[in-house]
Amino acid sequence: MELIIWALMLVLGGFGLVLPTLDYLKKTKLSPVLSLAAAAVATMLTAYMIPMRPQTLFNGAIRVDHFSSFLAFIASLGAFLVIAASLDQAKDWTTAPSLYSLMILALLGVYFILFVADATVLISSWALVAVASYVLVGIKKDERSLEGAAKYAIMGIASSSFLIYGLALTLGVLGTTSLPWPTADLVVDWHRYVLIVGAFLLVASFSFKLGVVPFHGWLPDVYGGVHPLLVSYVAGVIKLIAIGALIRVVTPLVPSIRAEWVTGIAVLSVITMFYGNLAALVQKNVQRMMAYSSIAHAGYILIGFYALAYSGIPYKLGFQGIGLHVLTYVLAKIGIFVGLAYFAKKGFDLTLEGLSGIGRKLPVTSAAFTILLLSLMGMPPLLGFWSKFLYLFNAVIDVAPWLTFLGIVNSGISVGYYAMVLRYMYFSEPSDADVKEGDEMELYVVLTAAVLTVLIGLGIAPKIATIFSP
Amino acid sequence: MIDIYLYLMVSAVLFALGTYGLMTRRNIIRMLLSAEVIFNAALLAFLALSSVSSSLAAPGGALVIIAISLSAAEVGVIVSIAILMFRKKESLDVYELSEFKG
User: Fold this and answer.
1) pTM assigned to the model
2) DSSP code per residue over A450-466
3) Which of A109, A316, A351, A384 could form an SS bridge with A129, CB 3.0 to 4.6 Å?
C-alpha cells in the first residue's frame, strides 16, 4: 500500500513539478498529454486501492480505508475527465502548462486530505490544494476569472483561518494531533463547550469550500462567471476535500456533541437547500443556475451528515448516501460544465434564450446533457435517484421525517429550473447559426459522464454502496 | 504565569474584529488584512492552548509554523491577483466588478 502512495506522489507530484519547466525550456507542448497519462495512472491506482484492507501508513500520518480510496478514485476520475475535455480548448492558452501542472498537483493534495490521519498532514495538504485552486480559477486572466479568483481566494483565506482556529480548540481539548480523535467522555463541562465551538468552526471552514449557505458568498460568482472548464475542476475535484475532511476530521467528534450537531447540521442543510433551489429558479444564465444548483446539492449531502449522528441503519445509509451522491454530483457537474464549455465554444450564449433549440443543433451532446440534468433532478433509474432518494433522504426517515419531507419539497422545487432548461433546449425555435458536432473531446467527456450515470443507475449503485460501507 | 484565559480572550476579540472587517469592507486589500487578523487570532489561540498541554507542546509549535507557511503562500497569491485586477480594472473593489448580474 505504501508503494502505491509513493507511486501516486511520484507520478502526480513529479509530473506536476517538472512539466511547466520542461515545456518552457524545450518549447514543447507535452504537458496536456502527459498530465492526462498521469491522471489515468492515478485513476487506475486508486481503483486498485478500493478493495484493499484499511491500514495506517507513514507512522500514522495517513490512513487509507475503503471510503477514502473510493473518494480518491472519484477525484482522479473527475480530474481525468476534465483534463481530457480541456485538451482541445485550453492547449492554446498561454498559461496551459501551468494549468495542467496545477491540476495534477491539486489532485495530489486532494488525496492527502482524503487520507488524512494527522492534523499536520491536514494543514499542509490544505495549503497545497487551496493555493493551487485560487490560481486555477484565475488562470485565464480575463476580468471574470480575476473577479472569481479574488472572491474565491479571500473566502479561502477566511476558511483557512477558521480551520486553524477550529483545530486549535479541538486539539487543545483533546490533547492529540492524530486522527481519529479519541471520543472519550469529557470530564470537565467547559471542555465540552470548547469542543462544540471548535467542531463548528471546523464545519464552517469546510462549509466555505462546500458552499453551504452562510458561507456561500463566493460560489455564484466563481461557478457562474469563470470559464466552465475551470469550474468543472473546482466543482468536481476540489470540492471533495470538504466532504473528505468532514468525514475524517469532524464526524469522529459527533458522539461527544450529538445534540448540538443534529440541530446545527439540520439548520444548515435546510437553509442551504432552500436558498440554492429558490435562487436558481430566477436565474436567466444557465451556468449561474448550475452554480445555485451546486449550493442546493451541498444541502442534500448535509442530510447524510445529519444521519451520521445516529447508529445503526441511519448511520449506514447516510454514509453510503454521501459516497453515492458525491459520485452523482461529480459526474453530473463535470459533464454539465464541460457541456456548457462546449456550447460556448460553438458560439452559443449560455443564457436560457441562447440555448434555444440546441437539442436539434447538437443532438448527441444535448441528449447526454439532458441525462445529467435528470440525474441531478433525481429521476429514476439514473444514479441521482438512488443516491438522493433511496440513500440520503431514506437515511433520516426514521429519525427526522420532517427533514426527508423538506428534502423532497426541495427536489420538487428543483424540477422547476431543470425542466426550464430542457424546455428551452428542446421546445424553442433554434437560431439560424450553422453548427455541427464534430469529433471533439468535450463531446466524448459529456457522453462518458452520461453513460456512467445511466449504467451505475441500472442496478450497480447498491453494489457500489456496499463496497465502501462502514 | 499569566492565565491562559487572557490569551484566549485577546484571540476572541481579534477574531471578532477580523470577522467584522471581512464582512463590511469591499476593498480586496482591506479584506485580506481582516482575514490575516483572523488568522493571527487563530495562531494565538493555538499557541496558548498547546503551551499548557504537555503532549501538545512540540507538535503544536510545528503545526503553527506549517500554518504560517500556508498563510504566506495564500497572501502571495492574493496579492498577485490584486495586482492583476488593478491592472485590468484600475479598481480594487471586489463587488463593483460584477458586470454580469444574473
Assistant:
1) 0.93
2) HHHHHHIIIIIHHHHHH
3) A109
